[in-house]
Design goal:
With about 375 residues, the protein is an alpha/beta fold. It is built from 13 helices and 17 strands. A 7-stranded mixed β-sheet has the order 8-9-10-11-12-14-13. Strands 1-4-5-6-7 form a 5-stranded parallel β-sheet.
Length: about 375
């Protein structure tokens, strides 16, 4: 048995990435059944295989023991699961960690915050410690255990401030960033001008309606002069004109000389009155006649009782996970990546025929009706 065990622990296939947490009821718990087993593993096994370890996934109860057990000269990736602010503070201010090469070695970091402690202040404080310790990160993922979605490099955060912290210049080599925001409340006082020349792939999705598109998202994008792929998904309030092809060309494409792929799902909402000259769906679609990227679909709806106009433009094939504000004018199509759909109208639809085309989405995901 010992001989077979030794073969396993010395085989780089098994030792290059060691994962210690396991998921239980949306929380990560340690695999070790007792501290005695953990201590033996740290004292007898880790020191003998330390040079073969390239990736460690740790939960908060045992992470300090494992990191203190040995030096890991080839470790470049670290996953910290179910952590709390105090855990991060103690770990990242540890003298041994600060003095070791680990802070310079780590280029990939995954963080899963305890779902019971996932508040705005907690997120910002954890970001502060992370950014001051790991100075050579190229891949950083905030992982939501409750949603179990870790397929892409993703920040699932509450505010735009955290996004700006990530892009304040300390991660000069960062090249891929996928951010999902809960909201953008107001223009931030955090510095939003420093160029980010190495960022090549950027996706931003905001769940709540944005009131500061021109003052928040556009200045951020202008910092990414060498961006090759851009994805945007949000709803924004506008005053005089809807976001259409002309707007995207003038305010985004003309500033992105290296851009090769642009996917988007943008809804702009305007308060209307009877004196306004309102564009039709055809008017909006014509603004994309010379648009250089993909096929574009335009939808135009006016809700007279609410005195509101909704312009929805998106690239097709549709690559986003969410499809918001689907109205009775939805044109149909195939949407294999969509998992959440919301419907929007002035009056609840009493007949299935109102949304007959929605079946192309609903067969893949969950429908929320607004």
């Amino acid at each position: 048995v010992n001989e077979r065990f030794n073969k396993i622990i010395y085989d780089p296939i098994f030792t290059s990435r060691l994962s210690f947490p396991q998921l239980s009821f949306n929380k990560y718990i340690k695999k070790f059944s007792s501290d005695i087993i953990l201590n033996r593993f740290c004292s007898h096994i880790l020191p003998t295989i330390r040079t073969k370890i390239k990736w460690l996934d740790l939960e908060y109860e045992s992470m300090k023991n494992i990191l203190d057990a040995a030096d890991y000269p080839n470790l470049y990736a670290l996953g910290l699961y179910n952590i709390e602010e105090e855990t991060v503070k103690c770990l990242f201010t540890d003298e041994r960690l600060s003095a070791s090469n680990l802070k310079n070695q780590i280029t990939t970091l995954i963080i899963s915050i305890d779902p019971d402690k996932n508040e705005r202040s907690t997120m910002i404080n954890i970001c502060y410690y992370v950014f001051n310790v790991f100075i050579n990160l190229t891949h950083l993922t905030f992982y939501d255990a409750a949603h179990q979605n870790n397929a892409r490099l993703l920040f699932d955060v509450q505010t735009f401030d955290v996004c700006l912290y990530i892009l304040d210049g300390r991660f000069e080599q960062l090249h891929t960033l996928d951010i999902e925001l809960a909201n953008i409340l107001s223009p931030s006082e955090i510095e939003n001008q420093r160029k980010i020349p190495n960022l090549k792939y950027f996706t931003l999705c905001c769940m709540a309606r944005i009131w500061y598109y021109d003052e928040s998202i556009l200045p951020l994008i202008y910092r990414m002069s060498n961006l090759e792929e851009l994805g945007l998904s949000f709803t924004t309030a506008v005053k005089e004109t809807f976001v259409d092809g002309n707007d995207l060309k003038q305010n985004i494409l003309n500033h992105m000389s290296q851009l090769k792929h642009f996917t988007f799902d943008i809804r702009s909402v305007m308060c209307i009155n009877n004196e306004m000259n309102l564009p039709s769906k055809e008017d909006i679609q014509r603004t994309f006649d010379d648009f250089p990227y993909a096929n574009i679909i335009s939808c135009m709806d006016y809700f007279l009782e609410h005195k509101e106009g909704l312009c929805h433009i998106y690239s097709y094939p549709f690559l986003m996970r969410r499809f918001e504000d689907v109205t009775s004018n939805f044109p149909g199509g195939l949407y294999p990546y969509v998992r959440v759909v919301s419907l929007y109208d002035e009056h609840p639809c009493e007949h299935e025929s109102c949304y007959s085309n929605i079946s192309t989405i609903s067969m893949y995901g969950k429908i929320n009706y607004q």
